[in-house]
Write a structure and sequence with these properties.
heterodimer, A: 562 residues, 4 domains, two-stranded antiparallel ribbon, 23 helices, B: 200 residues, mainly alpha, 72% helix, elongated
């Protein structure tokens, strides 16, 4: 018997083992083959393991969720058939595709009457998706191309009246061009969507039209209706502001979570750590009185209640592929008081021994590692963030924000070197963007053209160092690039009490930050929980910079794919 | 996994006869009966819900257009799926030249809805997100399969057709079906890595 079975076993070619196992699971083997395979399984542990793996694979696939067909499918079909019968007086025949589309379009248009905001927001997600796939990494208020850099430079070269205009204080002259550009871009995108063969939903087309009309009428987006994604809720106004600031049209269709000011990248060694961090994050958010918005946000993704706006706290889960492409990520959009950003980061990263990496971006400024991130976020809590006029204009104690901007608009060159003194001499210059932006630190030794443009004489730094300096060769500084990046930050009262910020390389020196000011402005934060690629392990963020952490990303460039 | 088609053959045949006689209600009955299955199959093959809805609609219209030529040599169920799968594969080939669709978007919502469910507590921080992540991986792995392997896997492991029915739907020999399913599963297993390990 053993001999006979041995001969049978020999018939099973190892190369075909998977096929036999697969068919065995599906009960599609002949009796003889089944007997052979069962004998092999009884004697060969590796074959048994292989069978279990195939079983597991089948189980995983068969457990994928199912969906019901759209509710209107049957109605659409029967309506078309009945009408065709009536009109053509023929046997049942296939309506033309275009006719079907028109029927769907009519139905969708009727539905659109009740979908005023959500549809409009959807189109922006859709437009972004149509134009950005494939995209290796989420775009978060980041300028990454030569064209963008050129735009930055062009913006900084604008004469003062244009600067005023860019700040949104003179709308009449800019509005027609902005609108035309916006409409042209939207039309182009819509056309692309159609030409790609995938039907842009009728509701989306109509929503786009409605949005264009709203923009043309200069109406504010209706935030009183529910279903509005916060940063999208202000989209028409935001578009105008961005256009006025000179941002390229591509920004509007490329960016998803754009207009966010703070980006937290938290990288963990594996999914378990990431999930634990996710739980800590949600716990934190629950404790911050945001949970009442949770259900709505999760259910709709695009809204958190009837009073969405820049004054609203919220958090929203991003989802792949609408907001990011890497399914290993989890991504949230959170709007909360500036003072809560640092505690949130601390809560999420866990104990210092946790194997996590932290990277923070605030506008163009970046910090790597926990310590640096803490310092940068502590700075975020400070006055510079809350000034409302850009970091450069709020660093001088005792001066109301906006003074510099007004001086600049009036044609007076702001002496930034005095208003935003350099930090301590031993702090190395940290150039954020060598040609555009520098955060503090090169007292007495300006090495770039841009710093030279600010003047050679610099006061001894009392405490503050973050500032914007002009583009190389320019005669004046500008906040425009930063404004374009920092996005929607609520503008608090200039009377906000000043707090000194701690030191970080190139970031202001000073005392440790005070407790979070709940009355401070709300900031929008993108939190990306990442898993380190296989073969790379995160190191505790207390490790020296550059050890076990991703290389620093230059500003305005796409981060390396993780 | 049970093959669902054979027990409904006679009822379908009656409905088909009524449709051929011009009974629109019978057609509505058949659409109502199979729309979810057809829609899911199209979704898993083409990878996009909107496209799946369009393809499902097209499939039923095409079936209606051709119902006069349906002679009952096979079940209406497999005949309908043959139309739908062909449309979905055709669409996918076209779509592949335009853009890459994904399956994981809708599935991601499970992570969120799971989190939203009451009862998520600190002592169970990862279970639901684990499930969602696994689903996302499985959907992504399925998406990356060769289209023929993918169609076979969808029909077998998601819709539960047997090999004979799949051969009929795909219009290929049964041996080919067996091979495609085996290779598709093997590719899935490799793509899923530790998720598919028996002890994973």
């Amino acid at each position: 018997m053993r001999t006979r079975m041995g001969k049978r076993m020999a018939k099973i070619n190892p190369d075909n083992l998977h096929e036999y196992l697969s068919a065995y699971l599906d009960d599609e083997l002949t009796e003889a083959r089944r007997a052979e395979l069962e004998h092999l399984l009884a004697t060969d542990a590796s074959a048994r393991a292989e069978l279990e793996a195939v079983k597991k694979t089948v189980k995983l696939v068969s457990s994928l969720p199912r969906r019901r067909a759209p509710a209107h499918l049957l109605d659409d079909l029967t309506a078309q058939v009945e009408r065709q019968l009536l009109v053509d007086d023929e046997a049942v025949s296939l309506p033309k595709r275009g006719y079907r589309r028109s029927v769907i379009s009519l139905l969708a248009s009727a539905a659109l009457v009740t979908i005023t905001v959500g549809g409009g927001l959807w189109v922006f997600f859709e437009i972004g998706e149509q134009t950005t796939q494939p995209r290796p990494f989420p775009q978060v208020a980041r300028m990454d191309s030569d064209e963008d850099r050129s735009t930055l430079k062009a913006m900084s070269r604008r004469p003062e009246p244009e600067l005023e205009q860019a700040k949104g204080r003179r709308k009449d002259a800019s509005a027609p061009d902005d609108r035309a550009e916006y409409e042209a871009g939207l039309d182009a995108v819509t056309e692309v969507s159609h030409s790609r063969g995938r039907a842009l939903k009728p509701s989306a087309v109509d929503a786009a039209t409605a949005k264009k009309e709203a923009l043309a009428d200069g109406e504010r987006y209706d935030r009183s209706s529910g279903g509005a994604l916060p940063q999208r809720a202000a989209m028409p106004a935001l578009l105008k502001e961005k256009l006025a600031a000179g941002a390229p049209m591509s920004d509007f269709v490329r960016h998803r979570f754009d207009s966010e000011s703070v980006v937290l990248d938290l990288t963990f060694s594996g999914p378990p750590d990431r999930h634990a961090a996710f739980d800590r994050l949600t716990t934190f958010l629950n404790q911050r009185a945001i949970p009442e918005l949770r259900e709505y946000a999760i259910m709709h993704f695009v809204g958190v209640g009837p009073a969405v706006g820049e004054d609203t706290k919220f958090f929203i889960f991003g989802r792949s592929p609408d907001n990011y492409t890497d399914p290993r990520q989890q991504q949230l959009l959170v709007r909360l008081p500036a003072g809560d950003v640092l505690p949130m980061m601390e809560a999420v990263v866990g104990a210092p021994s946790d194997r996590s990496d932290v990277s923070v971006a605030v506008g163009p400024a970046r910090a790597q590692g926990r310590d640096e991130a803490r310092q940068l976020l502590a700075y975020v809590q400070g006055d510079a963030w809350e000034s409302g006029e850009g970091m450069a204009w709020s660093l001088s104690p005792g001066e109301a924000p906006g003074d510099d901007a007004r001086q600049l608009a009036a044609g007076r060159r702001a002496d930034v070197s005095q208003r935003a003194p350099m930090p301590a001499p031993d702090r190395a210059k940290r150039t954020i963007a060598s040609e555009e932006v520098s955060l503090g630190g090169q007292r007495g030794a300006p090495t770039s053209e841009s710093s030279a443009a600010l003047g050679e004489s610099r006061a001894e730094p009392p405490e503050l160092g973050v500032r914007m300096i002009g583009v190389a060769g320019e005669q004046r500084p500008t906040t425009q690039p930063f404004d374009a990046l920092r996005g929607s930050v609520s503008r608090p009262s200039p009377a906000t009490p000043q707090r000194a910020a701690p030191a970080v390389e190139g970031v202001p020196t000073g005392d440790a930050p005070g407790p979070p000011d709940q009355a401070s402005s709300l900031v929008t934060v993108v939190i990306r929980l990442l898993t380190a690629p296989p073969g790379e392990t995160s190191t505790p963020s207390t490790a020296p910079a550059g050890v076990g952490i991703p290389a620093r990303q230059p500003p305005f460039t796409q981060p390396a794919d993780r | 996994m049970e093959a669902p088609a054979r027990t409904i053959h006679f009822e379908d045949a009656a409905l088909v006869g009524q449709i051929q006689a011009g009974d629109v209600q019978a057609y509505a009955h058949l659409v109502s009966k199979y729309q979810d299955k057809v829609f899911n199959t199209c979704w898993r093959i083409c990878g996009n819900l909107d496209d799946a809805a369009d393809i499902t609609q097209d499939a039923f219209l095409k079936a209606l257009e051709s119902i006069g030529s349906f002679r009952g040599a096979s079940s209406f169920y497999t005949w309908l799926f043959r139309i739908a799968v062909n449309l979905a594969l055709s669409h996918r080939r076209k779509a592949a030249r335009i853009r890459c669709e994904t399956l994981d978007g809708p599935d991601e919502s499970y992570m969120l809805s799971a989190w939203n469910q009451k009862g998520r507590t600190a002592d169970d921080p990862t279970a639901r997100t684990d499930d969602a992540e696994v689903r996302a991986h499985v959907a992504e792995a399925l998406r990356t399969l060769d289209e023929q392997h993918r169609a076979a896997i969808v029909l077998r492991d998601i819709e539960g057709f047997d090999y004979d029915q799949i051969a009929e739907i795909l219009n290929v020999p049964k041996g080919t079906v067996k091979s495609r399913i085996a290779r598709g599963r093997q590719a899935l297993r490799e793509a899923l890595g530790p998720y598919a390990d028996a002890d994973g």
